[in-house]
Amino acid sequence: MRCRNLTVSNTRTVLLTPEIYVNQNVYEQLVDLLLEALRGAHFEDVTEFLEEVIEALTMDEEVRTFGEVMVPVFDILLGRIKDLDLCQILLYTYLDMLLYFTKQKAIAKVFAGYIQPKDPSDGQMYQKTLLGAILNISCLLKTPGVVENHGYFLNPSRSSPQEIKVQESNIHQFMAQFHEKIYQMLKNLLQLSPALPAAAVAYSKPRLATFWYYAKVELAPPTPAEIPRAIDSMKAMVRSFQSGRLAQLTVREALRNGLVATEVLMWFYIGEIIGKGGLIGYNV
User: What is the pLDDT, as a whole number, of residue 106?
Assistant: First the structure.
């Protein structure tokens, strides 16, 4: 027990003061240790030890916060994962590591903050986060050894139809595993980090308010005064079609007439959906 406590204490010191270990990257060593444990049969033993280290790190954050300890680890994972392909087994080992991180409460809290983009108003910034790098992995294979090294449009595949079917089957199997792990990661975050749903609600409120402001106008049922005008517009469109004047309409007029026709048509669709009490069996 004394030996174990000493090992935990030394590991804590290593992670808090990595600068004193010249020519060593202690965070990469931690990632590699977890990677080796996942490939072997002693991952539970390693995580049990890591739990004790995490407890020691979070008890005293005077030298360095737990977040400052974990961010370099996430940086390493980001650098490694963004260059992997869908059908590389190594990708799923890293995803298993992230699954553990999202289950561990202290790490999950840091991870939830780490995956936030620096500028939420810039959509491209999401792609540069760790979660964005994972979601950006393409289903188009380009891994030598798994499938011939082709570039699709630049260097099309010369595989036979039978070989292509095998490749497609492999892609579906990997995608199913990929989606399941992402689902579990997000589920873990939502369960262990109450701040995430609150942040999602706070983010959505102004956008839902804007949507509802326009929806109350655009999606409201037609008033009795609007119905005759819409019918007159439809009659005018029919007369234009019959007289051949339809071809003389400007793009603006044609677009306006098309929107009017679509809106009237939607009245009947929405009315029928409401009348049936659901979308089931309805060809939308």
Answer: 92
How far apart, in whole angstroms, are the C-alpha atoms of residue 6 and residue 206? 52
276 pLDDT higher than 70: no
Largest Cα–Cα separation, the chain:
97
CA distance 46 to 233: 73
Kindly report the three-state secondary structure assignment for every residue of the chain: CHHHHHHHHHHHHHHHCHHHCCCCCHHHHHHHHHHHHHHCCCHHHHHHHHHHHHHHHHHCCCCCCHHHHHHHHHHHHHHHHCCCCCCCHHHHHHHHHHHHHHHCHHHHHHHHHHCCCCCCCCHHHHHCCHHHHHHCCCCCCCCCCCCCCCCCCCCCCCCCHHHHHHHHHHHHHHHHHHHHHHHHHHHHHHHHCCHHHHHHHHHHHHHHHHHHHHHHHHCCCCCCCHHHHHHHHHHHHHHHHHHCHHHHCCHHHHHHHHHHHHHHHHHHHHHHHHHHCCCCCCCC
**Across 83-92, 163-172, 234-243, least confident range:** 234-243
User: pLDDT band at 127, cuts 50/70/90?
Assistant: confident
Report the pLDDT averaged over residues 140-157: 53
* pLDDT tens digits along 237-249: 666 655 655 555 5
Six-digit token pair at 188?
Answer: 């873990």
Instruction: Please determine, for residue 29, whether its predicted confidence score (pLDDT) is greater than 60.
Output: yes
